[in-house]
Design a protein that fits this description.
Structural class: mainly alpha
Shape: globular
Amino acid sequence: MDAPTSQDTAPRTKQQGDRPYTRSMMMLGRLGEARHVGLVLALVILAVIGVVTQPDNFATSSNVVSILALASTIGVITVGATFVIIGGGIDLSVGAVMALASVWATTLATQSYGPYVMALCAILVGTGAGLVNGILIAYGRLVPFIATLAMLVAARGLAQRMSDRRTQLLQPENNAIESLSTTRVLGLPLVVFIFAAVALIGWLVLNRTTFGRRTFAVGGNPEAARLAGINVRRHTLLLYALSGLCCGIAAIIIMARTTTGSSTHGDLYELDAIAAVIIGGTLLTGGRGTLVGSILGLLVFTMITNLFILNGLDTSDQLIAKGVIIVIAVLLQRRGLRSPT
């Protein structure tokens, strides 16, 4: 029997006659649809600002490719983060796990086995770190914030120890990894198509499979999901493993783009990924969200970063702007959840 979605489980915690609660959920759904339109409008406005402020640089094919290539790395991580947050969790370790995967995959010992083993190593390291997070949270009963914060520190430290705080270069015989960034199809590097494939698969899993429906159920009401027959602990474990898998794939992309493995990779990527998910309409409390919204939110942040770079503005101002956007997004969520009077 298919597990109920968040729309099925959440109202069970209320009385049948609790109409304000139902109306607030309907309002939230309309807010989510309006948010997608608003994000598309924001992208259009940012594009206009780019053309006006940097007419010779912004609208060039090379800059568009640069935006998409940057979005591809964080975008793959954002897909995993969307699943985790919809499932009622949070993962602060994604940037550090990606760095660890890139360092482990670019050690001389790993590189001696060739590019395919390197790619497999990155995926296994990322997935393994995600499994550790999931075990600590689902079975160790640790708060997700604490468990993933600990993984952030540990993974970054392990990456520094393995690399001796040095940047590890790809060996010439492993140029198959680099070719993912240099080879172009329809004018776009292969890493963009990897991101598109991950996003498409993620959308299908979230919206067309039992796993996706269970994710909404677990995030919306874990107790109701348990009573419906869902193994909440196991599902939570799988969500964090999925997030780690996405970090491993992102590590392959960052290795292709930079031809290096480094403990400094992914710095503050957790900020960009979580922020993209939030402004895309996914509730921090879990149970509701869309992958389309997360991708649109990611593109907004990536374009903002690109505009700041092209206009020579300070990165600290960029972080302030992102912080303001996050606060506004959360306030809109709270307004949508508030019962009408």
